[in-house]
Design a protein that fits this description.
The chain is of the alpha/beta class. It contains ten helices and 23 strands. The longest helix is centred in the middle third of the chain and has 18 residues. It is globular. The chain binds thymidine-5'-diphosphate and magnesium ion.
Length: 455
């Protein structure tokens, strides 16, 4: 029997190396090799067995392209990010900080599916069956017929899946599951990858939809190898800070639907409730406009949402700080340089803090103009006009570039009672929008000029 030996596996690409190296020999990433256990390799005579017979090939045109069947989960906001519902044999990975509501949401979804006549299975490795039952009571799911299995050993889980044949199974969490065939500890790269691969294969073979719950590292990435994200069909992330009651779920990858679609929930004492009209929840309530605040319209997936961007510029020490919450920090540094170079607004000796209200994370560059206007407003101590919104990407040359689907953004702002907008010229609508005065701009200095004339 071949002896197990230690190998090193890359956290990025999953490649292996017999000895530790600073740089992965496969993908050239630094510091990604992690100790893992090499499994005893199959006897050499079997190595080319797969080449012995060829599989059939088919012309693309002859393959029947049937649209996938989706089963709605009963949670509209979850269905939205999933692209309509759970897909037969589909594998979903859902990540998020501890306590953000992953178990709560999935238990609610399973119960709704079970009540709709689907066979469900909830595999818990983190909590005991009693704890899950307690949560179900708290959620008001009395008499729930969701089948619960408290188990962390992969082989037993696979066997249960095979005999029980559920339509959907939740594995909470993939980091607690371990396979007997590996000697490394549960949660290690090798275990997580191996278990996820087995479960994915089981899902495809049996048609059971599987949802894997994943932990998130301090850096905010899913713990375990990146290959996990490649393996599954859909990757969802929970966002939002645990202090506010709002939670967002974003689709990072979806083989069955649109990416960057988001679902919005509110955590209540009876679990997560979908927020169907979230456009105004990321605004704080100021009686009168305050300096350093600018509202932008962001378009996440298919829905426009208004988000307040706040900035605080304050005299800093010898090495002033640049901090951002919910926005990219590198982008902030870039915007400050553009602001200085093209609009003559200098923050060199100032601390600059920016924040997107409500724990929402904004990834699109259309936030640039709002960030710059909020910073300038804070620096000057002058609020922006009442009912003001802005959006647009700002380039290094100081040009203001259009944001996708500007009309929809402007209409949403008008609907919520906003009256003044500074937008990229290419986004200016041909027909006026009722109640909204639009100032189209092509350059960042122009935007500053418009704002100065309004305040
Ligand atoms: P949980 O779903 O266990 O999160 P995760 O599985 O992502 O770690 O966390 C739920 C949190 O939400 C917990 O801190 C308690 C709170 N909560 C509510 O506010 N209302 C509820 O109905 C439930 C079940 C939990
Ligand atoms: Mg949990």
């Amino acid at each position: 029997m071949a002896k197990e030996k230690t190998i090193y596996t890359c956290n990025e690409c999953g490649g292996t190396s017999p000895k530790w190296l600073g740089k992965c020999p496969h993908c050239n990433a630094w510091n990604t090799l992690i100790e893992s256990v090499a499994e005893s390799v199959a006897p050499a005579k079997n190595r080319f067995a797969a080449l012995a017979k060829t599989a059939e090939i088919t012309a693309l045109a002859d393959i029947e392209a049937t649209d996938v069947d989706r089963t709605p989960t009963g949670q509209d906001e979850l269905d939205r990010v999933l692209g309509g519902g759970i897909v037969e044999g589909g594998v979903v990975l859902i990540g998020g900080d501890p306590g953000i509501g992953k178990s709560t949401l999935l238990l609610q979804a399973l119960d709704a599916l079970q009540r709709a006549g689907q066979k469900t299975l909830y595999v818990t490795g983190e909590e005991s069956g009693a704890q899950v039952a307690l949560r179900a009571r708290r959620l008001g799911l009395d008499g729930s017929q969701v089948q619960v299995l408290a188990e962390i050993q992969l082989e037993k889980i696979l066997a249960t899946l095979e005999t029980h044949q559920p339509a959907i199974a939740v594995i909470d969490s993939i980091q607690t599951v371990y396979s007997e065939q590996l000697t490394s500890a549960p949660g290690s790269v090798a275990q997580v990858r191996e278990c996820a691969a087995h479960l994915t294969r089981a899902a495809k073979a049996s048609g059971t939809a599987i949802v894997l719950v994943g932990h998130v590292t301090k850096e905010g990435a899913l713990a375990g190898p990146r290959v996990l994200e490649h393996m599954v069909d859909t990757v969802l992330y929970f966002e939002g800070d645990t202090h506010s009651s709002f939670r967002l779920i974003r689709a990072i990858k979806n083989r069955f639907g649109a990416v960057n679609e988001i679902g919005v929930f509110a955590m209540t004492e009876k679990g997560l409730k979908g927020v169907t009209n979230p456009s105004a929840i990321f605004l704080s309530q100021h009686a009168e406009p305050v300096p350093g605040s600018c509202v932008m319209v962001t378009l996440e997936g298919t829905r426009p949402m208004l988000v307040e961007i706040q900035a605080l510029v304050d005299s800093g020490g010898p090495s002033p700080r640049r901090l951002s919450v919910g926005l990219e920090r590198d982008r902030l540094a870039m915007l400050l340089a553009v602001l200085h170079r093209h609009a003559g607004v200098a923050c060199m000796d100032q601390d600059v803090f920016v924040n997107a209200v409500g724990g929402v994370r904004i990834t699109e560059p259309a936030a640039d103009l709002a960030v710059m206007l909020a910073i300038t407003s804070s620096l000057r101590g002058k609020p922006l006009p009442k009912g003001f919104i802005a959006f647009g990407e700002v380039g290094l040359a100081g040009e203001v570039r259009p944001a996708p689907r500007g009309q929809e953004r402007l209409k949403e702002a008008a609907k919520l009672g906003f009256s003044v907008a500074v937008v990229p010229k290419a986004n200016a609508p041909k027909k006026p929008i009722e109640g909204l005065t639009i100032h189209p701009v092509e350059r960042v200095e122009e935007a500053m000029e418009v704002v100065r004339s309004l305040t």
